[in-house]
Amino acid sequence: MIPVATALDYGSVVIFALTGALAASRSQLDLAGFVFVAALTAVGGGTVRDVLLGRMPVFWVQRPEYMVLIAIAAVAVFFTAHLLESRYRVLLWLDACALSVAVPAGVAVTLATGHPAIVVLIMGVVTGTVGGLMRDVLCNEVPLTLKQGELYLSCAFAGGAMALLAGWAGFGLPTALLACAGVTFALRAGSILWG
Amino acid sequence: MIPVATALDYGSVVIFALTGALAASRSQLDLAGFVFVAALTAVGGGTVRDVLLGRMPVFWVQRPEYMVLIAIAAVAVFFTAHLLESRYRVLLWLDACALSVAVPAGVAVTLATGHPAIVVLIMGVVTGTVGGLMRDVLCNEVPLTLKQGELYLSCAFAGGAMALLAGWAGFGLPTALLACAGVTFALRAGSILWG
Amino acid sequence: MIPVATALDYGSVVIFALTGALAASRSQLDLAGFVFVAALTAVGGGTVRDVLLGRMPVFWVQRPEYMVLIAIAAVAVFFTAHLLESRYRVLLWLDACALSVAVPAGVAVTLATGHPAIVVLIMGVVTGTVGGLMRDVLCNEVPLTLKQGELYLSCAFAGGAMALLAGWAGFGLPTALLACAGVTFALRAGSILWG
Fold it and tell me: Residue A104, preceding bond cis, omega within 30 degrees?
């Protein structure tokens, strides 16, 4: 992977881990539960993507530092979550950030495998949304991904399409990925603020 | 795959996509939600089968036209579902049709891999039932697969067993697959009508 | 696999199958439902482990006798569960036994692949907990894995860590696996009795 894609990848894992730990906090789990939900949320989307594409063993098995980062994030939230005024509000915005870096990360990984554009788009959406979906199902919350008025999936689709359009328009990969992240975040933020 | 198996495969994907979109409609999702649930329902069973068997990348990654068909089905339901008198009734019967073509499709794919009969039977059931199970869990409906009195899994098992019996009795593959589809549908229809 | 690991593997599959069938009984499913939930619970954790590690086809596809054992266990529970005074109590203790053999089984399989210690630990936890998690989600019970006060995940983590420590301390694999099983069961039993 090129540097921009690597940075997006680590970013999305750590931020999704924070959202998973916050959801664990809302469900009043113990420390092991924080780590478990954080890990599932953080690597869930990328893991499903890798399995669908046949890239095995999946990415985090080959790079155990991911799990170390996730455990640190979960422990940090475990000891600080009670200081937050509204854990849900923080979760919502962190989730928007994580989505906005996970979609381009998924696009970058899939582009490198040479699959057709529709598969690239789908894998961007899968990488961005499946971890959060698992988090919400496990913690018994209404999944953000499917909640009415959130337009969650639409933001992910639009971001992925932006990356493909930027590529077709002749922009380089880093520019296309940043455009993807920007569009995803802008739409998602708009939906949170005025949705 | 031989023509009969291919026809069963496309048929089950499109019909399951329609049921997924109808479930999305019952959950009042937006257009992206229709496409997402339709896709998960349509390819869920075959995807899990392919992963278990190690056939990767999974079938629809190699043939992106599946996703195009699914998107068309989802959009069509999005604009017409409100015209239906009882979306659940239509969903129930379409689901019975989809099950009856997905079980033989799963049997055909697994037979071609040379695995033993019990694995063929299991993969027929998995291909037929897992997509609908994901649809119901995601849309927060009681899963048809496990609902009391539906005999859903029994129909899938009986259909798969019929295919194996027809094969052992010396019938050709197309006949065995059609017998499988017939038995599955007859039992499922009986269960819906008199269950 | 060496004999101890093989014994652990078969043991965890059969005991988890019994817990799955008991959960099916609590949900009043039919016989096919018993077999389905028993199978999912019994092989769910090991299947996810194999997929993550890229060991495909997954373990039970290559050894169909697993499914025969699971079907026998499910049928046996189907005809006897009504004789039990408290199915939940039996389920709870069988689940503790299954966890205690599944964690070392997962550790043994992953050790043999040469992955780093953190991956071995994670795969022990995944093998031990994912099948039961699927069982509970499917049967609409609060997942034991995440239930407050159960310390379920902590027991699995501690058992896996014990296996690694015993290995580093120079003990042979059979000793390390037995220590892992012992620690997992002791902690889990303590949590059930005094948790």
Answer: no
DSSP string, A124-147: HHHHHHHHHHHHHHHTTPPPGGG-
Helix axes C65-80, B117-138, angle to 10 degrees: 60
User: Residue C109 pLDDT more than 70?
Assistant: yes
Name the DSSP letter for residue B86: -
Residue of chain C nearest A39, judged by CA positions = C122
Mutate to test the interface with C, among A29, A30, A52, A59 (most CBs of C within 10 A): A30
Q: Provide the domain count of chain A.
A: 1
Note whether C174 contacts A: Cβ–Cβ < 8 A: no
B58 touches chain C (CB under 8 A): no
Question: Would you call A64 and C119 a contact, using CB atoms and an 8 Å cutoff?
Answer: yes
Answer whether B22's CB lies under 8 Å from B90's CB: yes
pLDDT reading at C1 higher than 60: no
Do A74 and A38 contact (CB within 8 A), yes or no?
A: yes
| A32, A57, A138: residue with CB nearest C54 | A57
How far is C-alpha A94 from the chain's CA centre? 10
Judged by CB atoms closer than 8 Å, whether chains meet at B61 and A51 is answered as no
User: Using a CB-CB distance cutoff of 8 angstroms, which residues of chain B are in contact with residue A160?
Assistant: none
Q: Which of B38, B187, B40, B171 is nearest to B99 (CA)?
A: B187
Instruction: List, for chain A, all residue ranges whose pLDDT scores fall below the cut of 70.
Output: 1-2
pLDDT in tens, A98-153: 999 999 999 999 999 999 999 999 999 999 999 999 999 888 888 899 888 888 99
| Alpha carbons within 13 A on the beta-carbon side of B10 | 12
Is the CB of A61 less than 8 angstroms away from the CB of C51? Answer: no
In chain A, residues with a C-beta closer than 8 Å to the C-beta of B139 are 146
Cβ-based contacts of B154 with chain C (< 8 Å) = 30-32
Q: Hey, are the CB atoms on C148 and A29 less than 8 Å from each other?
A: yes
ipTM score for this prediction = 0.93
Please choose, from the candidates A55, C86, C139, A173, the residue with its C-alpha nearest in 3D space to the C-alpha of residue B56: A55
Determine the distance in angstroms separating the CA of B40 from the nearest CA of chain C, rounded to an integer.
17
Token readout for C194 is: 């005094």
- What residue numbers bound the domain in which C87 lies? 3-194
Closest CA to B41 of B154, B137, B155, B125: B137
